[in-house]
């Protein structure tokens, strides 16, 4: 572009891609606090951080999540990189965790391997309230042990995550999807039942490739037709039945409420045995605030040992919306600074920059006015910053060696020596409590 073009052209402002939310201050503080609290709870339960790539070989998701799922067949952001490899922005976290666990032999050590991750995931869905194309999750995976008490740990952890941020208006829905021994016979039975119904072409096709998905059809006429469909829960073999009984019994022992939803269908193919969803009624159509379950065949499917695992993904975007729906505000998430410095004139401003740096070294959050603003403008900046204290330094103060400390909550003023220690004492030690 030539210089003249650059000068004459006025660029149009740009928006974020469709369906991709921004979180900007001050609301971003809640988003950040929710995600941190979920991660904190996962660490309390012994899940260690794993940092994974945002994109992977497309094959990973095709094999891991399942070609017949909407996520893989319709919603992936897949493209060829410059070396003509097909890569995909991760639509979910479990397959990537499994790939990494196998690649780094974590499954050859102590089991279960307990991992925690968070970050953005990408699904080309139709955007609406609470349904985004870039969504944020905090997830955990506990890999290598098929113990129903581990299922309970994972479910209880999700429940604690929500409660720890103050949510109460949600419920836990639970079911068992059986395993490789009992599901094939059930699947056949369900398919036979469905193919006898007068289904439309598309639904008939779905019944052929993924019959369980038909149970999740929200259209009343389909729901009516499938009201008497056989249910997986009634066709569990003895082992899966016992597994499920142990899970529900231990949840009862922990006092965690749940409802059994035998028609629950998860959008990913890898699930076996225990499956669960946390549902919030304040969110309209996108009511799932988190979900997960056990996956018996996934590791082998990705080329590893034949080990089982269980995990969850909690939707951070939806948890934030659920807080809004319940009118809950989080305490202590304010990211605004405590102290704001105002320097008048170049010398005083230079000195202020040094003082502010010293406050920060002492763990006090602090900011200052930049750009050579006059006293009035800079004080406005102090008010807007949300700080409780302003430090004011001009030539007069520089000369006298004393700085003005203004309490922005009650407008009272005092002075202190031009020294970080004296300033900190003056701000934080009450008048009637002499500094040591
Ligand atoms: P998922 O149910 O597909 O599971 O996603 C988990 C959560 O992510 C959902 O409950 C929802 O809160 C949130 N979520 C999903 N899609 C969107 C969207 N388009 N917009 C906003 N939020 C969304 C999984 O991803 C599994 N990997 C969970 C898991 C881990 N299972 C076992 N281990």
From TrEMBL:
Enzyme Commission identifier(s): 6.1.1.21
Record GO biological process: histidyl-tRNA aminoacylation
InterPro entries hit by this protein: aa-tRNA-synth_II, aa-tRNA-synth_II/BPL/LPL, Anticodon-bd, Anticodon-bd_dom_sf, His-tRNA-ligase, HisRS-like_core, HisRS/HisZ, HisRS_anticodon
Positions of L-histidine binding: 92-94, 123, 137, 141, 266, 270-271
Molecular-function GO terms, alphabetical: ATP binding; histidine-tRNA ligase activity
UniProt-annotated location(s): Cytoplasm
Keywords recorded for this protein, A-Z: Aminoacyl-tRNA synthetase, ATP-binding, Cytoplasm, Ligase, Nucleotide-binding, Protein biosynthesis
Catalytic activity, as annotated: tRNA(His) + L-histidine + ATP = L-histidyl-tRNA(His) + AMP + diphosphate + H(+)
Cytoplasm among keywords: yes
Gene Ontology cellular component terms for the protein in this record: cytoplasm
Self-association and partners: Homodimer.
Recorded family membership: Belongs to the class-II aminoacyl-tRNA synthetase family.
Protein name, UniProt field: Histidine--tRNA ligase
């Amino acid at each position: 572009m030539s210089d003249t073009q650059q000068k004459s052209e006025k660029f149009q402002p740009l928006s974020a891609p469709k369906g991709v939310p921004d979180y900007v201050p001050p609301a971003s503080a809640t988003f950040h606090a929710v995600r941190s609290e979920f991660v904190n709870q996962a660490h309390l339960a012994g899940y260690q951080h794993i940092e994974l790539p945002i994109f992977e070989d497309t094959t990973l998701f095709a094999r891991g999540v399942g070609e017949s799922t909407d996520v893989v067949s319709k919603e992936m952001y897949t493209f060829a990189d410059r070396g003509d490899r097909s890569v995909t922005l991760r639509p979910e976290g479990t397959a990537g965790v499994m790939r990494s666990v196998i690649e780094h032999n974590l499954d050859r050590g102590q089991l279960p391997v307990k991992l925690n991750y968070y970050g953005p995931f990408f699904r080309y869905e139709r955007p609406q309230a609470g349904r985004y194309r870039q969504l944020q999750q905090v997830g955990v995976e506990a890999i290598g042990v098929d113990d129903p008490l581990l299922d309970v740990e994972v479910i209880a952890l999700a429940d604690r995550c929500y409660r720890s941020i103050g949510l109460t208006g949600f419920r836990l829905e639970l079911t068992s999807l059986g395993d490789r021994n009992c599901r094939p016979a059930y699947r056949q039975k369900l398919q036979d039942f469905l193919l006898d119904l007068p289904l439309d072409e598309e639904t008939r096709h779905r019944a052929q490739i993924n019959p369980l998905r038909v149970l999740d059809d929200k259209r009343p006429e389909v729901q009516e037709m499938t009201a008497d469909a056989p249910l997986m829960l009634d066709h569990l073999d003895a082992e899966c039945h016992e597994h499920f009984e142990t899970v529900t019994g231990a949840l009862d022992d922990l006092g965690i409420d749940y409802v059994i939803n035998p028609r629950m269908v998860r959008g990913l193919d890898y699930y076996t045995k225990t499956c669960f969803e946390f549902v919030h009624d304040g969110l309209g159509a996108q009511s799932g605030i988190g979900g997960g379950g056990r996956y018996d065949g996934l590791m082998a499917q990705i080329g590893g040992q034949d080990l089982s695992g269980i995990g969850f993904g909690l939707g951070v975007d939806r948890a934030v919306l659920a807080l809004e729906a319940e009118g809950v505000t989080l305490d202590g998430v304010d990211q605004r600074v405590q102290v704001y410095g105002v320097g008048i004139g170049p010398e005083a401003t230079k000195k202020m920059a040094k003082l502010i740096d010293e406050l920060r070294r002492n763990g006090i959050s602090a900011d200052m006015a930049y750009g050579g603003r006059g006293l009035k403008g800079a004080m406005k900046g102090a008010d807007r910053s949300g700080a409780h204290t302003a430090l004011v330094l001009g030539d007069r103060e520089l000369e006298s060696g004393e700085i003005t400390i203004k309490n922005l909550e009650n407008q009272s003023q005092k002075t202190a020596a031009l020294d970080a220690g004296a300033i900190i004492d003056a701000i934080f030690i009450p008048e009637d409590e002499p500094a040591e």
